[in-house]
Amino acid sequence: MRQKIIYLFLFTFCCLVFLEGEAVNPFVSRLPERKVVIKKEEEVEIKRLNTEGIILKGILWSPKSACAIINGKVYKKGDVLEKWEAKIINIDKYGIELKYGRNVYRIEMKRMEGKEKR
């Protein structure tokens, strides 16, 4: 019995010496380390639409459809003003809404003096 204990002790000791470099700590992750990199947000240039050149001449409006006359051309909802790269997202009785980048711009008809909004 004593010999078995000695052999068992020597075997365990030899195994520990052999595996010394590969001892496993159960509290350490075996997954590869990942570095968390936080990138600074680049300064985004905010695009602004120059509405000075967009002249709303008239609106043809009905509950089912609508058109706008802009700089002498007829546009409908969803059309893009090519020169300005702005999309028409809404046309109502009084004006239009254009989407340019993330911003929405509203252009209204100029009212004639003496006329009231109905």
What is the secondary structure topology, with strand pairs?
Blueprint: H1 2-18, E1 56-61, E2 66-70, E3 73-76, E4 80-81, E5 86-91, E6 95-100, E7 103-108
Antiparallel strand pairs: 1-2, 2-3, 4-5, 5-6, 6-7
Short description:
This protein has 118 residues and is α+β, with helices and mostly antiparallel strands.
Can you walk me through this structure?
The protein is an alpha+beta fold and 118 residues long. The protein has a domain at 51-108: Roll (SH3 type barrels). The protein has one helix and seven strands, in the order αβββββββ. The chain has one helix at 2-18; strands spanning 56-61, 66-70, 73-76, 80-81, 86-91, 95-100, 103-108. The protein has a four-stranded antiparallel sheet with strand order 4-5-6-7, with no helix packed on it. Strands 1-2-3 form a three-stranded antiparallel sheet, with no helix packed on it. The longest helix has 17 residues, at 2-18. It is rod-shaped, with a radius of gyration of 37 Å. The model has no long low-confidence stretch (mean pLDDT 80).
